[in-house]
Amino acid sequence: MVLCVVWAGASLALMLSTLEAEQRAGVINTLLSSSPLAVVLLLPLGLAVVKLGTPFYERWVLVPMRLAEAAKGLLAKDGARLPPFSPSPTSEKLTEVLHALADQRDALRAEVATEVARSSARIEQERSRLAALMSELTQSVVVCNLDGRVILYNRRARMQFKALSVNPSLAHGIELLGIGRSIYSVFDPRLVNHALEHIRHRMAKGASGPTAQFVTPTRAGQLLRVQVAPVSEGDVGSLSGFVLMLDNITRHFEEETQRDARVSHLMQVSRALALEVKGYFEHAAVQAPTAEAGQALHAHALQVHGDLSQYVADTGASAPSRWPLEDMRAADMLDVAVHHIGQTAHMKVVLGEVDGNAWLRLDSYSFMQVLGCLSQRLADEYNIGSVQLRVQAKDGVAWLDLVWGGTVMSTETAMTWELDALRVAGEELPFSVRDIVNRHSGQMWFERDRARHEMFFRFQLPLAVGQEPAEAAPQVLSGGRPEYYDFDLFHVSEQSRQLDDRLLSELVYTVFDTETTGLNPSQGDEIIQIGAVRVVNQRLLVQESMDQLIDPKRNIPAHTIPIHGITPEMVRGKPTIEQALPTFHAFSHDTVLVAHNAAFDMRFLELKQRTTGLVFDQPVLDTLLLSAVVYPQQESHRLEALAERFHLVNQGRHTALGDAVVTAEVFLRLIPLLAQQGIHTLRQAREASERTHFARIKY
Hints:
48% of the residues lie in helices and 19% in strands. The chain has 22 helices and 20 strands.
């Protein structure tokens, strides 16, 4: 009985010791009101137990609990230490063990951080070596991710693209090339995709280092030969990007065109000489030829000999081909053709007899267009639903047949199809089927197989030696500085996310500014200077900039000259806005526009839409509005105030390019401040800007 009372009293005491004073008083009052006798008997005993048990409870329960809570602080910061506790052998030993574990953890973290820094330095060095190597190459090289975004290019490529510009005097041709820009603004994506499909197919077959190439005209009227090489992630057929190596073959093309004309002339005069010789000897069989006839024949022969000798001397032993050909297995080519015709002509394609050892020498892209175009016409004009492809090697050449059955085609129709211009995706190309066949040094004809009730186009093409191209030995250039690169773009898929939902830190921006004759665009004021720079992956690329003076074709008010420093003499003879704006439009294409007080600059651009036909319909961010989002209590959001707030130095203030650079630096500092307010995406930034008071300003 006594033990029960003691146990009950101890339990009551322990319970009361865990309660706050007000709660403890409430419990005691409740017990007194319900069972006064029990409380009178148990309470003194319980209080005695509490007095004796409290030190035990604090030492063995409270101290370990507090120690456990304090130990959480060791996880938050390296070098942290536990606060002092009531001295006891247990707590002191446990504290020592926890400190030892924390010190060991800190040492491991420091070791890992050191190794990460060392590895990062090695990677950065390799990047620099690669970029330095590329900068020294004499060939134009551009590296892109799978979305066609430029990741790296060398100095030669920049010079190449300047030459490709419609107006190289404006912005030095940089509007066509830049980090994060799409290469498809220059090249038809169908050409590149065809080359990549060919590369993937060869990689799946086990080829080592496969390449592909194509020839394409540019909008400046020049002709480029482009070799495509893969950037592989290691898996078979897995690509993370591609390399383009460019050669301008415009001059070679023109030279070969002239050679073709000379060859045609030589054939004509040689044929005339042969007829003259034939007539001379036929006449000699009847009667003796005169001396005059012999001298005339001899003079004609000397003239033809001289023309031939001059042609050989001018052209040399070898002449570059204007239509680059590559070695390709016939079976591989037909595999790609089956897929291409099925997609373009929407018809069934079957493979007939294919010589597995046959290799073709051809430009696969152009020849694929021939097969696709002919199949499309068969489907459209003769309602043919199925074709067959077959290849056989014979007497040093390959016969490639496009076979079908059904409605009979006349020879005249077949010849017309050979001479008609090719149509691809509704667009007419400047080549006919016959042109492409001739440039492959091949032949083409139409045949009927009455026994099999078949008709076919037969292409006779040159055979090639079946060898994979040898891999070039790797080269390393020590030292050097990277020129233009951003390898992080390998990890961004432009096609996977909508622009509005992209993070601000991932987008490509064109930050620009204009200088004008005045502040009233609707009343005749004009742009006299455009300056712009690019921002990619939160990096300001000053080397990719545009700075163009513009002749406004009107007076520049004298009171504005001290502001922008542009005099009438400086703009006299410069391009007009109608001439310069297409360059800026191309420079900013496919990027987000950024300006300070953007409504002002955009109004000038909008008013030129009617005369230039150019629409700037991409998203626009305004650093003035974004500043109002980040600093709603500040009185001034002028560019000078923001530059001072961020400790920026503007050495080119009130020049278009100088202000564009400062605006870009301000914008880069606003991005993390916006993130602190939960504004991470383009959509969120635009919506936040629209809620500010300054968004109501119109021009």
